[in-house]
Protein 1
Amino acid sequence: MARKKRTITGYAALLALLGSLLVLNLCVGSVGMRPGEIFSLLGHPGGQSAEARILWQIRFPRTLAAALLGGALALSGFLLQTFFANPIAGPFVLGISSGAKLAVALALIAALGRGLALPSTALIAAAFAGSLLSTGFILAVSGKVRRMGTLIICGVMIGYICSAVTDLLVTFADDANIVNLHNWSLGSFSGVTWANVRTMALVVLAGFGCAMALSKPMGAYRLGPVYAANVGVNVRRLRAELIVLSSLLSACVTAFAGPVSFVGVAVPHLVKSLFGTSKPLAALPACFLGGAVFCLFCDLLARTLFAPTELAIGSVTAVFGAPVVLWLMLRRQGGRDDG
Amino acid sequence: MADALLYTKDLSVGYGGVAVVNGVDISVRPGHIVTLIGPNGAGKSTVLKTLTRQLAPTGGAVALDGRDLNTMPDRDLARTEAILMTARPAPELMTCADVVSAGRYPYTGRLGLLTDDDRAEVRRAMELVGVTGLADRDFTRVSDGQRQLVMLARAICQRPRLLVLDEPTSYLDVRYKLKLLTVLKDLAAREKLAVLMSLHELALARKISDTLVCVADGTIDRVGPPEDVFTPGYMARLFGVTEDLLAQARAGGLRWEELYGF
């Protein structure tokens, strides 16, 4: 019963944070607006005033994108942690995001060189292919080495290699494309259109639905593959589903926002500790909300801290995400009862 | 063999198509305890893994409840056979009650929500094994012995008709060994549970088993009740204990017959 109360309190807190950050992200910027103004402008989508256009064409899609993609990253991390049975697994630390980034850069340069504009679905497809390639490599390595530390080092190395190749590509890309490509390769939620938001909402919410549908076997998989199989989980299928789903979710993020680091590790950690359970049915929606809250907060800082200069979103998420990961790891090592 | 719950015929088991143990003919009846004994590395675990579908047989057949084990639907298998293997799970943030509840998986719906009946099964299993007091404790923070009993409760609340255990008493102190074996004996007698396990402790195997299966040299060397198997001569042969070693032990004051009570 104590746990039920804790879960309800946790969800209430996350929803309150999400609500206030959504409003705050819409209000704060080069043109400040009061919440009252926001609500009246939101009632009239076709408004032609400068404020209405800033709200409807820039801040609103960007805010939704940060929330959706943040949720997707946290989910992707949760799925990978289930797969590897290790809390340090995540799309960024395993090099999966970097693989996606390289594939997207290749696709963009190929298309731009021919004067084509790529639809966002094509970007997601490229990112997905890149994610699967990096994941495939990590899986091949994990067949040989069981130690998570070694896997992480492999992931970081893949990350460096892919980033280096991406940087090279960006450097030698046509002048006209460099600015766009450079911004994207640093990671940012800026420049998101409504069409992008529709596509990402479709992919991310479908991914969330699939993840929820897997919550029962994922719960059983926490005791390891042998005991999961013994109660009737099709382990081989579950593992394939986890990999495809986590790659798709992190690919979607990379396609639209470039690399965003540490959200996938930090948020599931925080949420599980806050809720005191790793039960997927309770933790998955909370991870999604937590990821949204975390990225909304980081994006707010990224665009306001040194306005008008924007920070790369990955720099901000790393500043808040990496220490959380370190702190939690050290606390767990300490073996105290509140862990 | 019509009344056997588990029945193997000329089974060979191994890894990657290479047989480790050949000619396995075992049958386990409801209410009986069958124990595999034999030297380290003889392939006892490999046999048990094959009989719980963790490994595909390299030859021969396994029937569970009159059906082919390897084509049985996952859920039917899960409702018939529960396991307690040597793997020690270390799940993140799971209480002991959560771990036991995992055994209800084959009975719950799409989302895995527990009904009142499921919760009653979990309570019953925890009471039976004597771990009710651990319900809210984090599974990774209880002792090895307690963890093993919690895993046994998990297997029991799966409501199997056959329980398969690989070295369930290793690394446990006497209290937990005694508790675990008492629960098994009790379930076999009262609920006609069939039990198949491997044990290293010969004295325990002798006391608790209805049938012993001796695994050595890549085959099933002998199958029979304890009195047929526990003779000093046969035990020495099964475990490769030489006359020299027995003589050395005697010289040091260790008498093999006294140690194991043959």
Protein 2
Amino acid sequence: MSNAVIEIRNLSKIYRDFWGRKKVQAVKSLSMDVQKGEVFGLLGPNGSGKTTTMKMLLGLLFPTSGEMTILGKSASDVSKNEKIGYLPEESYLYRFLNADETLDFYGRLFNMSAADRIRRSDELIEMVGLGKARRRQLKEYSKGMTRRIGLAQALINDPELVLLDEPTSGLDPLGTREMKDLILRLKAQGKTVVMCSHQLADVQDVCDRIAVLFQGELKVLGRVDELLEMRNETQMRTSSLSMEAQEDIRKVLEKHNIKNAQFTSPRADLEELFLRTVRESGERPGRRFSAEEIAASGKGGNA
Amino acid sequence: MDFDIRPYDLSSAATSWMVLVGILTLISVGLSFVLSLARNGVSGVAIFTTGLGSYLGDLFSLSPKRIYALTKLTLLEAIRRKALLVFVVFAVLLMFAGWFLTDTNSRPELQVSIHVTFLLTAIAWLILPAVIFLSCWALPEDIRIRSLHTVVTKPARRLEIVIGRMAGMGIVSCLVLVVMGVIGAVWIYRKLPENSRSQLTCRVPVFGQLYFFDADGQPAATGINVGDTWMYRSHIAGNSRARAVWMFRDVNESSIVTDTIGTGDEAKTVEGLKLECRFEAFRTVKGSEKSVLQGVQAQYTLSSNPREEAFGMLSQGEALRPVADALRDGQFRNGSDRLKELATRVRTTPDELRPADYLGLQNGLAVAGVILKEMKLPALLPVQEKFDAASSRGIALLRVLQTNNATGATDKPPYAEFAESLETLAGGILENADLLHESLPKLEVPLPAFHISEYHEGAAENITVIPRKLRFAADYETLARFLSGIFEKWSEEGKLVEGNAISSGLVDSLQKDASVSPLNAELLATVLNEQLTAGTLKISDGKLAVADGRRWFAFFDDLIRKELLISQDTEGWLIEKDLLTDLVSNGFLRVEVACLNDQMYLGMARPDLFIRKPDRSFLVGYTKALVSIALMLMLIIVLGVTVSCTVKGPVALFFTLTFFLVGQFFHEFMMKMLSGQEQGMGTLESAVLIAQHRNPQVGMDVSSTTSAVLKGADKGLEGVLRVFSNIVPDFSVFNRGSSFVENGFDVPFNDCVVPAVAIFAGFLIPCVLMAGAMLKFRELEAK
């Protein structure tokens, strides 16, 4: 029995004008599966067809040809939505509602009982950190807050499959980290997550598998770790080496006919630097950090 | 506006609706199938089937909870987006309207009309723009800013979104309407001048059927045209036998009102039937200023006249008139003779009578037979059978005449057989002359004359309360019937005799029990004693009876003819009759209207005279008018949301506004054009005529082929117009309620509120289904 949550076969989408003339083919014969419990990333430059694919999965667009099943049901079957959560690229919510009313409204669309709606709303508002702003209308929210309430509405029904369109778009690095942590938590809960994003680092951090689309065609599909592995190189990581130790190692490598060995200190990525700075600023307000301090505190990774 | 609107035929409307919706459904499904095939080839069949199945599935899996959620969302949206600001405009209007509306010098009913018209118009036209914008803009805006995406990616069916949107907007508009309605009612009660508040009521009219009699007393289809270009009213000539006759149906206890007549110390409460008229006085001569203001004198006569009903139809054509006049006047022996003469003419010189005379005679005989049968008097059965037999022979004769006329055949019409049946009928009438006279009583109650002025339509002068107990000077026939009725009863009870003489208490009894005046009671007792002495009356078995065995009616009729019962009072023989039991027959009341002034005319149309049933509270009619407005607003919402499911806001607005304006102002015109009531040429033909500077009488200056092509194309355009007229709702129906209330009438529920509900429901169902389908099969993200 297939363990696929999403199955796509020969999916194509052609956008046409009013007269039915072809404007552009956004997706070309796309075939792929998304397995249960994995975090799947759809990558590609602008216009590559990743958002179109996601919208076809959601029934917002109709495929020109091909087949799709989600959780065993046709993409055009509305009942599939009962187990799906969707976070759009922008949070297109009703701006005249407050957070409580928003979650209550979406909860009602799932026919949830009043008690369940209240309980779930409380949990989600707590989870996305909007406890203090829950009574304010969404039109007063910042972009980050809007993304958070958008995420909360996507999870109101405790979905099995979560579709995230640019989940970290508009978020500050802290929010981005929280979003990535959340995605990993969802994965840990056994849920399937499909996300499309331009933020390659984010995708690399959380996705198990990715598909790269270009001009509507599937170019790469596979596990992230396998795709990024550089099999013609070996990396070794130790505590800082003295010059003598480096010379000894170089001789050993030359003995094995390996000539291009390089010895450098590893560098944290900018996200780690930012997060650390924010964290330590919170602990020691008013202090400015030197490059040396930051480099020293970076030892041992980003913990 | 005509307040006597034609009854609404709900079953016929429902049938038309089902046929139309059925046709539209078939066309829609067929078109979708063809489009699916065209776009997807063979696989289009499967796609179409899946889509149809999915749509039908949606229909049966609607969730009230989700619809409620969407309804609540719409409500919140309207409130938080400040749609209720319309109240502010309303409040401002009401605050300052009084400056311009209130005029204590104006007539009270005009004051009421002006205030109510302003209020209902303000309410409707203030909410209308808000509703149109809300309904046309909400969904397209949701789609544009993609709020709808987060809804449709939940288990919400798109049909539920449509219903929720419509319900939410409907509730918003109804809430606004209710609040405005309540504020408006309070405003009107407070703002109306003191002298006008009594006019704030809802009259409940009962309209009748109108017939005319010409100046010679003969039935006529219409009255006289006095030269008005507006043909609405027909006129009757003054000081002639011309009458306008209204036949009211369903007159019963519920029609009786309790009203106060007179003012000050002379005011008294009367129980009776209230008649209100708005005749037009047409004067051919100038009079004094006073007479001009008073207008023309008119008089009502209540009558129960089965002879007119039975034999009136015989009065078609000069040849038949002598027979008809004699029978209508109750001169049955004379009538029998005239009928025999007619039979002789039919037998000997049949061609002197026109086919129309034979047709009129046959119709008249048939109607007389039916009326006599309806009276259900066994004694009349033999005469009724003779009328029927003569009618049957008449039909046989007419058939031959028609066949000869149509085919040119020369078959001999059965004149002799028809003449024989007429002779038999004449014999039957002669034989039963007394019985017919007694069984077909004519009762006429003339009421006091009153004035009709050109300038006081709707004023109190036009209201007449006819007392339930009518006391009037009886004519001889009525007197004979009145006395015979009393004496038959008292004779049976043995009240008339004391020993071998007439009871000495007869005078007292006549005064007390029959309301006969003392002088006339004395006269009657004296005459009866003389008749007893003369042997015309006899006493046997302790009862007073007519000596030769005749009935009391014939006896008194005889006395009256011999002028032995001439009234001793100057007022005549005053007798009392009950309006409902004596003048209303099977629920029908006949009211004749006469114009009394020479050279003057009274103009009247069917709604110009009506029975005013007990008035209802102003709030009853006002509420019904608001309900009609609410239904109109909700229909606009339904149309707006439906259109906005497939096009953008501005386009939806254009469509909805077009529907509303055409339905409101041009629907009646369209229907008149299509039914041929509105004269005119086809579109293309008119265009050619204009271009050629020609008029419709001379026609187009084109070849016959071109003319045929143009007229054919015009027929096609007419077909388009016919389809359009069936699709565009008649919005004027929703304003009828307001017009009634503005003019002080109650809103008739069956003929005004029911059509409004039916039109709304008739559009609601297909629109919801159509809107659901359009939204479901629409790509929300289409580029």
Protein 3
Amino acid sequence: MNLKNKSLWKVDVKTIVAIGIGAALFFVLGRFVAIPSPVPNTTINIQYGVLAFMAACFGPIAGCLIGLIGHFLIDLSAGWGIWWSWVIASAVFGFLVGLLGNRTRLAWGQFGKKGAINFNIAQVIAHAVAWIVIAPVLDILIYSEPANKVFLQGAVAAVANIITTAIIGTLLCFAWAKLVPDKSSLKKED
Amino acid sequence: MTNLFNYIPKDSPVHKLTGATKLAALLLLSFASMTTFDTRFLAGITILTFIMFGVSKIRFREVKALLWFTFVFMVLNNLLIYLFEPEQGVMLYGARHEICRLFGRYTLTQEQLFYHLNVILKYLCMIPLVILFVSTTNPSEFAASLNRIGVNYKICYAVSLALRYIPDIQREYHDISISLQARGVEMTKKEKLFKRLKNIVTILFPLIITSMARIETVSNAMELRSFGKNKKRTWYEARPFLPADIAVIVVSALLLVLSISLNFVNGGRFYNPFV
């Protein structure tokens, strides 16, 4: 199989399964794993680190749907109603990381300094768009909440998520790349 | 598996509706209550959902934990809104009837109270609806229902895979976390924040490896069975629509149309008794 020519937009059986299992991971980490943060009564959202990793591996469509399904299921089971503004923001985050993060390199088992920089630029942009633009704007449109409140909430969420994704996501990528044999080390015989 | 979505099987007209109907009604009504801020409409929907609660035979004490959580969340969000913008109501309704002055820039106005009433009503019509949906719909029906309302079956299959693997992944996470904690990986506040995040990765990594391996196995198995070859597939949990189902969908759709048309009648999203 020639991974290099595999399109970013192709949805094969593996992508479907990755969406399902990725959403299950997102759900479990988001719903049941509470890691205390320095701010009282808030916990660290580690699921976005994993979402970024999955999106970088499986592309924008998988990232988008993992965020959408995972977050929707969390809202459904938590009982606070479905907050479409934040569900959609999660989907946008997954989509953007999949689009901007370089896909083939990670699947190939190549993830060096360049990959790490690329991955982190992607996740910072994606978090900023999702939490500082999409979520607050939708909150204002749907719920007519005060602008300064939702933008502050969004900015706090963005900063916290960027930091956790930078640490968790990058470490996951490095560890994963070490595990997968570097496919470019093999050459086809002429 | 613990009851993840709080499904309570009972014999009631609401339980007898197909999952697809309830999902369609949930989506239609949640969009209806999102588009408008008309107080009368929101109050109507709220009353309707409470009546449905009665019909469904779900008792309030069975969903007490969910409701309590929701109540705290609602109070907190309202407080936050007031702290950040005590004049939000005045801005939205374009009038100002002051009741009393509290301190600094915090005054109590009729418009602000009315705005908060609307925000609370938005919760009150949305949250019981979601709780009603999860407690009367069998999770195994989700995927079939999604397909029924027009979502591509491959995506529905992803949803059903997610529901299938949530308990497995939950158990796996628990096992890994406990065995690593026994080896001295600290996750509580005793550890510094950065170290704590690194420790999470120690737990996450085995979880990711097994999940990636699982993706490989499951997708191979599905490919061997020619998943995705045909345009359509059938579902074990799918049920045919009954007249009651069609009635519920039609009523929900009409309510959505009503909420959209109210935006034109009121000349905006708000029902404004002040001007």
Protein 4
Amino acid sequence: MTSAGSGLTVWQTCALSLLVFTGASQFALVGALAAGGNPLTAAAGAFFLGVRNAFYGLRLSQLLALPRAVRPFAAQWVIDETTAVSLAQRDRRGARIGFAVTGLSLYVLWNLTTLLGALGAEAIGDTDAWGLDAAGPAVFLALLAPMLKTTTERVAAGLAVLLGLGLLPVLPGGVPVLVAALAAPLALWAEGRREGRARGDAKEERR
Amino acid sequence: MNVWIAIGATAIGCYAVKLTGLLVPAGVLERPLVRRLAALLPVALLAALTAQQTFADGQTLVLDARAAGLAAAAVALILRAPFLLVVAAAVAVTAGVRAVGG
């Protein structure tokens, strides 16, 4: 629905859900396109959001021990939810069933709601008047909030906001978000320094 | 047409990344630093995107009804409201502020 609200057709919206099937990346792509970003930088931003799925895949491949021939088919369902369900199971059989059931039901539901949402948005017309353009950032915020557990994550988020907004007027669309990704290594570096100092203090006290 | 290029590039990239995770031998991505970085990258990206979608109009920064909507979403999150309610709060408040003339 957010997608149709930002100028994509029903077909484009549905293709996105069928082919990409990673919520955060889809929203990111649509958001960047709506903000006037060029298609390749928009795709790059969406791609980086999808990178975490590689780390899920790594854990899942040990857990599920899928035959090589099945992996290319299973890959499309490697997302937050299927990983969470699979990791919660006690044995391999449970994990495999959990992965397949979660993957299939989410895939069907996600694409059905996308179609309904896209058709609905077309019927509604001017989505801005209904405040639907605020749905995108609200979804991001809801995804982001549970991730902000420690100082390091908060530092990374804060820095990224500053970089993203500060560079927006001066760099072409889509690029500020990529630069804002630098907040992650910067926050890690700051964490390293903090820990180094804490260790130094502890040594001082012992003396 | 441009939109289709973006959709195609994203679809291929996201699928490749998912498959890589399943095929890459363990150990390579097991290093703690790589792991921490991978966990932090989405945080930074989501934060920047949230801010931009709230305060950006094209390439200029603006303060409009969307900011009120996001604030409502933040309050809903602090009150531990379920996901859909958080989004609904943002949408409703934004529409409300616009209707009043914000």
